[in-house]
Write a structure and sequence with these properties.
homodimer, alpha/beta, TIM Barrel, 19 helices, 45% helix, 13% strand, transferase (chains A, B), methyltransferase activity (chains A, B), MTTB_MeTrfase (chains A, B), EC 2.1.1.- (chains A, B)
Amino acid sequence: MTQQRIRSGRQARQAERVGRPVAIGRPYIHRNIPTYDILSEENLLRIEAAADRILAETGIEFRDDPAALDHWRRAGAEVEGVRVRFPPGLLREVLRSAPAEFTQHSRNPANSVRIGGRNVVFSPAYGSPFVMDLDRGRRFGTLEDFRAFIKLAQASPNFHHSGGTICEPTDIPVNKRHLDMVMAHIELSDRPFMGSVTAEERSEDSIEMARILFGAEFTDRNCVILGNVNVNSPLVWDGTMTRSLRAYARANQAAVVVPFILGGAMGPVTNAGAIAQSLAETMAGCALTQLERPGAPVIFGNFLSSMSLRSGSPTFGTPEPAIGSMVIGQLARRLGLPLRCSGNFTTSKLPDAQAMTEGTMSMLAAIHCGANFILHAAGFLDGLLSMSYEKFMLDDDLCGALHSYLDGVQIDDNQLAVDAFAEVGPGNHFFGCSHTMANYQTAFWDSGLADNEPFEKWEAAGGLDAATRANRAWKKRLAEYEAPPLDAGIRDGLRDYIARAKEGVPDAWY
Amino acid sequence: MTQQRIRSGRQARQAERVGRPVAIGRPYIHRNIPTYDILSEENLLRIEAAADRILAETGIEFRDDPAALDHWRRAGAEVEGVRVRFPPGLLREVLRSAPAEFTQHSRNPANSVRIGGRNVVFSPAYGSPFVMDLDRGRRFGTLEDFRAFIKLAQASPNFHHSGGTICEPTDIPVNKRHLDMVMAHIELSDRPFMGSVTAEERSEDSIEMARILFGAEFTDRNCVILGNVNVNSPLVWDGTMTRSLRAYARANQAAVVVPFILGGAMGPVTNAGAIAQSLAETMAGCALTQLERPGAPVIFGNFLSSMSLRSGSPTFGTPEPAIGSMVIGQLARRLGLPLRCSGNFTTSKLPDAQAMTEGTMSMLAAIHCGANFILHAAGFLDGLLSMSYEKFMLDDDLCGALHSYLDGVQIDDNQLAVDAFAEVGPGNHFFGCSHTMANYQTAFWDSGLADNEPFEKWEAAGGLDAATRANRAWKKRLAEYEAPPLDAGIRDGLRDYIARAKEGVPDAWY
């Protein structure tokens, strides 16, 4: 697949400014800054050797999925009960068929994203049972909340992806909510999205709905939906996950393979060990997709976390996982796989200073490590237990800043501005000079949420903090939201599918 | 000078934990992660060529300092009135005598810092006329505030330097406050500090007080005080600054040479142009120290800032200056000079989400760009107009995290933990395993301010936000502060000096 032509960052922002308020930004970011390579070749080899030893000596259990065990037997792994041990080099050989880069198509072709290579895609947070806002506090998420977050993302120029289970719609039965979630993404957004993975048949439903939207043949040849599957760390793949992973791969759709390693609980307390474990677990999951269907797209994921030594609580947005992400990035590039890393993580229970200290450190780690698909880019609060409306808007703004960050520095005669110094001269200001007039509209990223006014002006306007401004901003955005048009035939087809899938099926609540 | 032996990060933190509450951390950080090199050799050469053209064609004005002009004439620059134009290569040649790395000594030798090379020193913010806290709001700073911030820094394990004009003590006359500020640093802290630069005689007073503390001969041979001098961008050096710069250099003390470039006002709106300007202005200032005294220590500084295109207000902690810092880091290393970059910048008027989003992006830029001396590491709020007690504590905590961040990843058999996987096995937890027990005390940085508790526990404890916790934390730290012992003879000598310096001098208030 060839790299599709996109507008440069400056051009895109210029275009946005002409037509404010902004409708849609760039479909994704093509990074213009290098990755941050933290470890030497020698040390990377030591981590890879440790992962190989874990895989060969301890191995990984694949539970409740005989077909997965059959795959491993045929591939040459040593299978003993549900334990699978991998001869060194086996997984890397299997992974050679996985694409380094692929397109996830959107129903609006202008919003299709390239995942892999130098491309970066921002997607909202995923999986919280609770939602929060400053008015109503913390409560269980509903389908109405779920739909609201899709609208907030769709109406922002700073995201590229609609996400998946943005929050759990707990007012809908567990065995039916995946249908409503996929429908909401399709109806309310025209960006790419993720399906369900919580049971094989729910994965199949999600993919089938994508087939209704994109056509069965197109779907078999192109990626149109992602499924985020988790390792049950340490070193266990549950059948629910591998069956879903295989369902996505079988349909030529991309699984995002993610160990969640809380150091000291689901992995060692030492960073290097957790990284080696993450590599081992992710390689095994990614390789399984290739055994199910060689050439299927797959994303190399990770989710490193640390622990408070005083309380035993998980911590997010701390330095060790940030540094760990940099290493994971190097390892993924050595495997030639698209990378999912970090996100905007925090344990704070409010959209406050702690939330954004931890979140910014975590997001910048994802940026520097070379992540291609950044899930949890917005809304994450409360150690992933709550999706916050205000945090979503703060993170959205940070995602906007990161577009400019990833554009890096342009070096050309206009940017270097040598002639402007001769024009302005020592001691004079650049306000009205011709270089400023020619460049000011595209020079700097302009936050929609930060208050840059002088103190007196800020105070006279009410002296609001960022969280309160974010509270006003999400309400305004929801009020102004307009759904992108959707073909009526497709909508009816999807509704019919959902009605049939739900009909006569008793509600299950866990 | 040889690199002094320091404890490794893990050892240091282990030592801290044994003796909680922590008294003193590491004297400075020796970075174990690479710098982030964002631009290619080719593009760096283009920026250097642009700086050379600015210096040769437009030149820089040196106002109200004939001695500086004499220096330039003797060095071979073209002097026309106060305008100085520099033949390409001249400044680089002059800068060859400046040390790449030096020690700033502290009255407590254990706290002396190495500036340059792979070393990183954190110092509080500098220069705000106002102070803020959540109880009393925004008000002019006083000597009491100034002393309070020194105490807060001294009592933290996360700083390495006492700073300089942490806030302006506006209750003391302008022409006398430098004496009280230097005295406060010496009495209340036993870390290195900065002197005044607001007039040549105040610089001389600051240095003279350092001589009383360290002895005249030691001071002539070693760096014991820093002076932070600003360019009057664009392309003007005022005599007040160059006279102070020369006073520090003459005494073999280190000037920190800092252009403040607000893009679109004091420099072009384009990042590459602002970087070229910064390089030109800083090289000229640093070179002047070498003409005054070859071999004097000097620090290559910069302060890039952007502008809100909607309001014309300065913005801080935005992506363009962060990216610009990375380039400046590469340029400083190519010159072989110690680097000061960024800090914890923001325009927020509260210690809120905006403050820490901007601050964290800005601080991480300083970390990645390889800055050796990070001024403004804590307390900066309100576009540098206010020093905030709560922000100081939040930033202090981030500085703690950055110690671990800069330690990077250790790769050895213990850290890789391969045997622990065999011990624990798939599906089991690592809580009590021998590897966890052997490593948990030193595994993760532990925030003193973040709340990592479950929501219910956090709520039951009052549901406080980070700013409120920071408010309690600074009061507790101030209440528990103990001054480090100071030799009574030195104290009396300093008091005598101050009394004589103030005697019979009328107060000046501007």
